[in-house]
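INFO worker-7 received task bundle
INFO bundle size: 2
INFO processing item 0
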Amino acid sequence: MSELELLTQSLARNVKHWRSVRGFTLDVLAARAGVSRGMLIQIEQARTNPSIGTVVKIGDALGVSVTTLLDYERGPQVRVVPAEQAVRLWHTEAGSYNRLLAGTEAPGPLEMWDWRLMPGERSPSDPHPAGTVELVHVTAGELTLTVDGVQHLVPAGASATFEASTSHTYGNDGHEPMEMVMAVSVPPVH
């Protein structure tokens, strides 16, 4: 089975599981996530490979991390994720990408990401649920972080934290690749 097939089946199983745990009908989850009921049916039947944006919306609506939705290996309390198992969810032809390194539920979803943006590229993000916090640490280049329309420059070696419940964009306006590690903490669903 290919990695994509494994992820598609894991997503199907985990969306069904967490929808059941939360007591959500397909219609309730569709409304909370802002995706169609038909899309959810296709996801739960492992008949589609949705965009990362759709997976993030479903995770936010369920109050679980993307890692939890894509997890196909439930292990002991200590979970080591080998480099080759980090999931690349987004990339461009120029070489920009993000990789989901690890995640957990503590008490809400907590994710750690590895990002690379090539010069001139941007990655916009829709607002996350109220209370979501993101932390970034730039390891190379300079990040142009735009939060709620305001740009902030974050050079290599610097870190930033912000409430991610408004639109935000990660950009590289420099001349060299920008690399950062990012943590995302989403509050639990009540």
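INFO item 0 finished
INFO processing item 1
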Amino acid sequence: MTFTVRPLDPSPDFLGETLLSDCELVHGWVTHPKSAFWLMQDAKLQDVEREYMAIAAHEHHDAFIGLKDGEPVFLMERYDPAHVELAGLYEAEPGDVGMHFLVAPTDTPVHGFTRAVITTVMQTLFADPATRRVVVEPDVRNKAVHALNETVGFEVVERIEKPEKDAYLSVCTREQFMAARGAIR
């Protein structure tokens, strides 16, 4: 599977009768029952617009839409964990990059799709030579994402308490990712 990634456009501009704005699209994804760990189940469209406008304005946080054959299929966020999300919760190292991703909910899952998405996300992050490690903080209850993270090379470092959840701080070096990619081919 081949994906492309483009910046998320948080502007609520009218795009026509058949096209949704990025925030309208993401709103449908983050409020879907399958996206419970995204913690936005009760968000209104204005909440999503406000959140992604803030991310767009933040110097240490970015959001992207992932596309397959031109169709939006996933959301990716990149952040500097020394300044966002994990600031003060762990000892950030030079070259650490934080990441969140969300695959668009579907009623017709495709085997291997989510693994292909996280592989694309990791390739995108490691395309920057300054990235040494990718850092994530998934909810301790999210067993599916822990298993998925392990397949691309993440290792749990420690359990941390965040205001909104208990999480497993996990890291993946470039070398761990490359080794995992070789193992899953």
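INFO item 1 finished
INFO post-check item 1: The helical segments are 22-30, 45-57, 113-126, 143-151, 174-184.
INFO post-check item 1: The first helix runs from residue 22 to 30.
INFO worker-7 idle
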